[in-house]
Amino acid sequence: MIFNLPILALSALVPLLVGFVWYNPKVFGNAWLQAAEMTEDKAKGANMAVVFGLTLLLGFLLAIMLDTIVIHQNGLFSLLEGETDLADPNSATNQFLSDTMAKYDDRFRTFKHGALHGTLAGLFFALPIIAVGALFERKSAKYIGINVGYWTLTMALMGGIICAFS
Fold this sequence. Notes:
The structure is a single chain. The chain is 77% helix and 0% strand. The protein is built from 9 helices and no strands. The chain has helices at 5-11, 14-22, 25-35, 40-44, 48-70, 73-80, 92-104, 111-137, 141-165. α3 crosses α9 (141-165), α6 (73-80) runs antiparallel to α7 and α8 packs antiparallel against α9 (141-165). The termini are close together.
């Protein structure tokens, strides 16, 4: 599996950019503050350089995982990963990989397709994780909806970028 690091780094910016809009007081910011039982003073009291830096780092980790989900060709690399003769350019395995990638490398490599898989990741990964935590923290459905909406949109955009440009 080969990662396109510049594209992953670019997509790692998406959580910050979407967050600036999504959690803006004119969008969902005030509703989130109320649902999270957070005050403006407490929110402003954080070291924002650390928050933004860690968000960027975690966004990069998320981009790596999304790359494995939105690019179907990664499955072929995963399937052949343990083959001992893969590094040999004259091997049957390497020839199979080369021929297959020549024929199918561009399949399902659009923004729309990546956004679909990003959306599914939001609904089938982010929703259960956020909802379970929120249930135990006694948070509201509004809190779950705001956060799941943010992550679903974020992963849809990240998936689209990664799939179309990697």
